[in-house]
Amino acid sequence: MQKKIIECVPNFSEGRDSAVINAIADAIRSVAGVRLLDVDPGEATNRTVMTFAGEPQPVMEAAFRAVREASRLIDMRKHHGAHPRMGATDVLPLVPVQGVTLEECAEMARELGRRIARELAIPVYAYEASALKAGRKNLAVCRQGEYEGLAARLGGDDPADFGDRPFDDAIARTGATAVGARNFLIAVNFNLNTTSTRRANAIAFDVREKGRVLREGGSPAGKPLKDEQGNPLMQPGTLPATKAIGWYIEEYGIAQVSMNITDITRTPLHVAFDEVCRAAAARGIRVTGTEIVGLVPRSVLIDAGKYFLAKQQRSCGLPEHQIVDMAVKSMGLAELAPFEPEHKVIEYMLSPSQDKSLTGLTARGLVYTTASESPAPGGGSVSAYIGALGAALATMVANLSAHKPGWDDRWKEFSDVASEGQKIADELLALVDEDTRAFNGVLEAVRMPKGTDEERAARQHAMTSANIHAARVPLATVETAARALPLLRQMALKGNQASVTDAGVGALAIRTAMEGAAINVRINLSSVDDPEASASILRSLQDAMKHIGEIDEIMQIVNSKI
User: Fold this and answer.
1) Which of 79, 83, 403, 469 is an active site residue?
2) CB 432 within 8 A of CB 358
3) Number of neighbouring beta carbons within 10 Å of residue 37
4) 220: which residues sit within 8 A by CB, 6+ positions away?
5) Amino acid 374: pLDDT
6) What is the CATH number of the domain that holds 509?
7) pLDDT per residue over 421-442, tens digit each?
8) In terms of residue numbers, what domain contains 81?
9) Which of 161, 435, 502, 547 does the annotation list as catalytic?
């Protein structure tokens, strides 16, 4: 199951006192399961932006602790800086990264806002996707009048959404906070083979959502056209949810189009890249590379890599690192400096070290670890790994077929098979480690104290739960491995016939995976003291094992073609 990950990017009204900044950062670090990714203080703005991420509940707890620490250490009566602000914690957006919708983030933001108001007595405005009032979607509306205007707003006709009350000494110290939810924002610069800021700006105006001011005669020197209210008439750009300007970077000796993509669901990075390339080419200029500022979600590079593979009519069913590499090469992400995905992709930075996982081992290392005196990894993990190899063979045959000379018009057919095969292989690889974790969970339950009646009851409950989980993991291996069989059959029938035996070996590997995992399901169920759960798991196992008959049919196809 995909882990849920959100990002939080709070802005604190202190950018000069390192002791205060470090104390707030330490409050974030104090929560297990949260990774502080960036701390960016600004002296002129007297403001620090922090970025951290993790699963939703730990991130919300870290956000609360950071707000609490900021309210303790920052006195807004003494604050001065260039950036608009209204509180010690000025803004606190939650951002969906993986497995979470914007709507879910919005509800989390409201929950967090209520807690801040309730426990810290700080007035909270809900903005962007979490806004309770239509006008407050815009942060500028929530922050209208800034800190100095709070006394006139609170407790009156423009109350805070949570914790509203008349301005008092406590609010005078902490100010108010805006808590919201927004889509991920990407800051990106497109490198140009020109030093002209004017031409870079022209390209930016071509593509940004706001566009450019319409002028008389269509000439840049013409008088601006205005509507009846006197507002400038605008010619919209081609990319929704984008803001952009052109500038010259002396350090690199080039001009860039500097862009913020405020909603990657409306304008993905690869779409922005292609459109800036088109607009630049129309003005005789080339985009030579791309510079991503800060971090991006994994999906941004995966979607880009698949987009460029598809443009080349190449299979998208490749291992993830190859898809990411295609994105890096296609958009020139390493033109100005090395691009290291492990330091630029949020999910990669949050992932535990692969060095301690079974799938992070070499083939030799996995064999030797399995052969050791430890009971884990055992047959369940090995079954999942063999299944992953079987699915990988289906993927390989599909990728080779997509590349076969004369079959160019069939690339999409084989790409779809390869993509599904790669997905199944990845799921089975995850089950390799999950099976060992499940076994260790059983051992932990066995070691629980059993002196008192209460301890014995708790131990029995834990053992039942652990054994049920230990049975469900190999059941998932059986069900997941079975999904590879239609792919292997399709590749045996229609794939590159030079690789038909690879499809056959894949089918035999899937048989071993399914039968091996099945006996692990049954042995683990023998320790489950829950007849209803056992019966449900056995029914699911019987349904999944019905597919094993497909393997004989696949082998008949393979043998007929040898």
Assistant:
1) 83
2) yes
3) 19
4) none
5) 83
6) 1.20.120.680
7) 999 999 999 999 999 999 999 9
8) 5-181
9) 435
Query: Among 320, 350, 380, which residue terminates a domain?
Result: 350
Asked if residue 129 has pLDDT above 70, the reply is yes
User: Catalytic annotation on 83?
Assistant: yes
Give the DSSP H/E element, type plus range, for residue 426: helix 411-446
In the predicted structure, residue 1 carries a pLDDT above the cut 70: no
For residues 88 and 69, the answer to whether their CB atoms sit within 8 Å is no
Residues 174 and 258 in one domain: no
Residue 435 annotated to the active site: yes
Query: What's the CATH code of the domain at 283?
Result: 3.30.70.670
* 52, β-bridge pairs: 8, 36
Asked whether the predicted pLDDT for residue 354 surpasses 70, the reply is no
Regarding predicted confidence, which is higher, 134 or 181? 181
Same domain, 436 and 315: no
Distance between first and last Cα of the chain: 39
Number of separate domains in the chain: 3
pLDDT tens digits along 72-84? 999 999 998 888 8
> Is the domain of 390 the same as that of 528?
yes
Whether the per-residue pLDDT at 355 is higher than 60: the answer is no
Cα–Cα distance, 514 to 508 (Å, whole number)? 10
